[in-house]
């Protein structure tokens, strides 16, 4: 469960202030959202700023509550600086995967901290694979299942959820956590490999043209 950690509060406040500005200022929202056409024109900053905008207050509240409850598990084990590195690495990898999957869709747009938050969730699960999510689901089952669901969502494109950003965020969280805490590989190599399996599945499917 989360607590009032200063770094978490700062990130939440930044998301809230940026998002509220976007709710009330259409031109601001349009200037900083993720948009393929604008990024191709050189506005790379959108790959970062879009992670602090949200569609509506409900979207913002859901992401910030999720961050609040999972952040402390990462901070406690790896420290505030590493937590911030994982957060921003996950945000960027989420944007990069979205760009990869939509690079020819010039009108494609997206916003939200979901990629960064998913990276923190995945990092937290790596540190405690048997944590209980929704009271009874083991963390590693939830994490792997969610990524497989994300692959399904990317393949079928039947909703407006940014599955690629969520998946990319998890990739960032997975990779950066193992870089910053390589001892996890010594403690439970098989679990770490199992948690990385959906990532391999996605890129194999992408390579063979199945997604």
What would CATH call the homologous superfamily? Rhomboid-like
Number of strands: 4
What is the N-to-C succession of helices and strands?
HHEHHHHEHEEHHHH
Strand order of the largest sheet: 1-2
Q: Count of helical segments?
A: 11
Quote the distance from N terminus to C terminus. 36 Å
Q: Find the CATH topology.
A: Rhomboid-like fold
Report mean pLDDT, rounded to a whole number. Answer: 95
Q: Given the C-alpha coordinates, what overall shape results?
A: globular
CATH class: Mainly Alpha
The largest sheet, given as strand count, sense and whether it forms a barrel, is: 2 strands, antiparallel
Q: What is the name of the CATH architecture? A: Up-down Bundle
In percent terms, what proportion of residues is strand?
under 5%
Segments where pLDDT lies below 50 for 5+ residues? Answer: none
**Secondary-structure class:** mainly alpha
Radius of gyration based on Cα positions? 17 Å
Query: How many structural domains are formed by the residues?
Result: 1
Layout of helices and strands, plus pairs?
Elements (H helix, E strand, L loop, with lengths): L5 H19 L1 H7 L1 E2 H5 L5 H4 L7 H22 L1 H23 L6 E2 L3 H14 L4 E2 L3 E2 H18 L6 H18 L2 H5 L1 H19 L4
Antiparallel strand pairs: 1-2, 3-4
Helix pairs in contact: 1-2, 1-5, 5-6, 5-7, 6-7, 6-9, 7-9, 8-9, 8-11
């Amino acid at each position: 469960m989360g607590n009032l950690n200063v770094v978490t509060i700062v990130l939440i406040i930044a998301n809230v202030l940026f998002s509220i500005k976007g709710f009330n200022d259409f031109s601001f929202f349009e200037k900083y959202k993720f948009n393929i056409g604008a990024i191709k024109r050189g506005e790379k900053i959108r790959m970062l700023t879009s992670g602090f905008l949200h569609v509506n207050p409900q979207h913002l509240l859901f992401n910030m509550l999720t961050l609040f409850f999972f952040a402390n598990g990462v901070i406690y084990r790896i420290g505030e600086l590493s937590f911030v590195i994982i957060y921003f690495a996950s945000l960027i990898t989420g944007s990069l995967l979205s760009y990869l999957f939509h690079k020819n869709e010039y009108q494609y747009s997206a916003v939200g901290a979901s990629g960064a938050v998913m990276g923190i969730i995945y990092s937290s699960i790596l540190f405690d694979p048997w944590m209980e999510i929704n009271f009874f689901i083991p963390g590693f089952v939830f994490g792997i299942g969610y990524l497989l669901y994300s692959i399904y969502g990317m393949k079928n494109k039947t909703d407006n959820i940014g599955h690629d950003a969520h998946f990319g965020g998890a990739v960032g969280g997975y990779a950066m956590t193992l870089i910053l805490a390589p001892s996890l590989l010594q403690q439970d190599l098989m679990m770490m490999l199992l948690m990385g399996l959906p990532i391999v599945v996605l890129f194999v499917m992408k390579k063979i043209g199945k997604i």
